[in-house]
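Tokens in:
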């Protein structure tokens, strides 16, 4: 057996969370190691290299705020960056702060066990290496375990199989190929227009149609970036006080004030206050995005259905073949149930001659064959099959790490009926183990970079507090996590996220057998941050310190 490496803090993952944790804990003078399955940094942006992958949070906000020097030196080429640019940024951060010397790549953690006698965590890797640490920080990401549905005959398919969330680093040649893609969530919607351009023929296997709106395609203007740089201190502060962790900062020096006509066209608060003619006119002038601006669409089922129907009419006007348009119209759920999807040319893609849409809700996939996909009513010949079937979100990576806490309690057992955690930061029975953007925190409902920094800073302060007070362990009281999970559920009720017709990965509904629990905290980042700070200020109220 190889030598046991002993550190103060073991970090699992070297995406943005693991990277910042490495930097932050090192700055405390602690001995740190991060263990990463990939060959390099970047997490989500390392694995999701599929054509069309990009972020839908503006890059000037979806970037680290801990270093003014970093803010000054980095140029973003687009307002909403594509995956290669975000990965370049991750690499730049790793170089600039010399992070790689404390990261072990090609290293997957296969077990995380609490050693009760010496109050340390023991992490075992796929190579049989062992790391022991006083603290363990799971920076494993919310969307990092790809979901690959098991179709009968999957092993028989002789063509190339890819998953958007595990896209190869090497270029994939799709020219003249018959390509199939399963899934029309954010990943599928981003990939499909690009795949249609690259492939000989593209067959889209759609189970649930999607409400998607055009993404912002603007190049970054140097003057806008400069204005952000001048105001970053204030902008980072504004992020801290916003429900979504975005500042809403509007450059005034570098962007012309919008004309009065455009302002007059902006959506009023409630869609129900408009006549059908006014709604149609608004969409005609401003596009489908305008429907996302109405408050009542997210709180009132009747308003929601009005917006859904206006949206469906929009799809009917964008897609030339009326039968195809009808299949693209979502009817089983409403706007606001799932993560809002943004696209570039999605609906227009279905007007192309080399694209076929297959409704696998009407005729489900029966099996894969050596040559393609068999549905209940036809066979589709393919050279390449792409899964854009999402992730075992929020709990997937934590459960996959095989974490066992005090008294041999497996996290899998503790979470059998759904994730039970305090603030999405810690679990009772797992002392000194922290989760970054864990279930019960705002995470996926806000700017992830802001959420990550807040969690890592909170954990670092907590570790500092323990040391300053000669304490060795912290874990939540059982009642605290029950109360918090109750609160997380309570605030999600009455929103479109939890209507009975809604089946999203937020609810675990995309994974067969996963408990139906709304996992992220919908109460807003700012409120959540304040709560975390209050708890820390009250000597970690609700936690048990020892
Ligand atoms: O995954 P999804 P995703 N047979 O779960 C279908 C973030 N993200 O990777 O809805 C047939 O949303 C499934 O159908 P259905 C973002 O937070 C962000 O696309 O279950 N189809 C659905 O259509 C996002 O929400 C960005 O009926 C099957 C699709 O696969 C999250 O990641 C970009 C199936 C999965 O959609 C996940 O998005 C990309 C089966 N057996 C991702 N199983 C941006 O920032 C599943 N499907 C822009």
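Residues out:
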């Amino acid at each position: 057996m190889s030598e046991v490496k002993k550190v103060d803090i073991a970090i699992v993952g070297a995406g943005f969370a693991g990277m910042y944790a490495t930097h932050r804990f090192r700055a405390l003078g602690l001995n740190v190691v991060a263990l990463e399955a990939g060959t390099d940094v970047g997490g989500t942006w390392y694995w999701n290299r599929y054509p069309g992958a990009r972020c839908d949070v503006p890059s000037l906000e979806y970037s680290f705020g801990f270093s003014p020097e970093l803010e000054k030196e980095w140029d973003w080429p687009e307002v909403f960056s594509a995956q290669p640019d975000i990965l370049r940024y991750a690499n730049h951060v790793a170089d600039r702060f010399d992070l790689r010397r404390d990261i072990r790549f090609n290293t997957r953690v296969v077990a995380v066990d609490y050693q009760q006698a010496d109050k340390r965590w023991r992490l075992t890797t796929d190579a049989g290496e062992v790391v022991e640490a006083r603290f363990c920080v799971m920076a494993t990401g919310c969307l990092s375990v790809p979901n690959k549905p098991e179709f009968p005959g999957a092993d028989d398919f002789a063509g190339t199989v890819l998953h958007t969330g595990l896209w190869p680093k090497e270029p994939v040649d799709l020219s003249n190929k018959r390509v199939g893609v399963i899934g029309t969530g954010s990943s599928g919607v981003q990939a499909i227009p690009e795949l249609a351009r690259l492939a000989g023929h593209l067959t889209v296997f759609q189970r649930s149609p999607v409400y998607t709106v055009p993404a912002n395609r603007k190049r970054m203007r140097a003057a806008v970036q400069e204005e952000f740089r001048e105001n970053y201190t204030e902008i980072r502060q504004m992020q801290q006080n916003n429900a979504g962790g975005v500042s809403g900062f509007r450059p005034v020096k570098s962007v012309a004030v919008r004309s009065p006509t455009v302002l007059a066209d902006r959506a009023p608060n409630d869609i129900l206050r408009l006549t059908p003619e006014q709604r149609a006119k608004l969409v005609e002038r401003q596009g489908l995005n305008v429907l996302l601006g109405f408050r009542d669409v997210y709180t009132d089922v009747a308003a929601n259905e009005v917006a859904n129907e206006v949206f469906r009419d929009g799809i009917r006007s964008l897609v030339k073949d009326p039968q195809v348009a009808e299949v693209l119209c979502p009817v089983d759920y409403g706007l606001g149930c799932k993560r809002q999807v943004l696209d570039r040319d999605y609906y227009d893609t279905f007007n192309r001659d080399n694209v076929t849409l297959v409704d696998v809700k009407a005729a489900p996939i029966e099996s894969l064959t050596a040559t393609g996909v068999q549905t209940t009513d036809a066979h589709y010949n393919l050279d390449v099959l792409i899964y854009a079937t999402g992730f075992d979100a929020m709990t997937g990576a934590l459960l996959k790490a095989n974490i066992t806490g005090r008294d041999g309690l497996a996290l899998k057992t503790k979470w059998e009926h759904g994730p039970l955690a305090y603030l999405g930061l810690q679990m009772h029975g797992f002392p000194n183990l922290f989760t970054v953007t864990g279930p019960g925190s705002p995470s996926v409902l806000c700017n992830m970079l802001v959420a990550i920094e807040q969690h890592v800073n909170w954990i670092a302060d907590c570790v500092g507090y323990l040391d300053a007070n000669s304490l060795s362990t912290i874990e939540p009281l059982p009642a605290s996590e029950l109360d918090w999970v109750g609160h997380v559920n309570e605030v999600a009720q009455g929103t479109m996220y939890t209507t009975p017709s809604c089946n999203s990965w937020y609810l675990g509904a995309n994974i067969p057998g996963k408990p139906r629990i709304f996992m992220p905290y919908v109460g807003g980042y700012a409120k959540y941050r304040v709560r975390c700070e209050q708890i820390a200020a009250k000597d970690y109220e609700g936690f048990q310190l020892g």
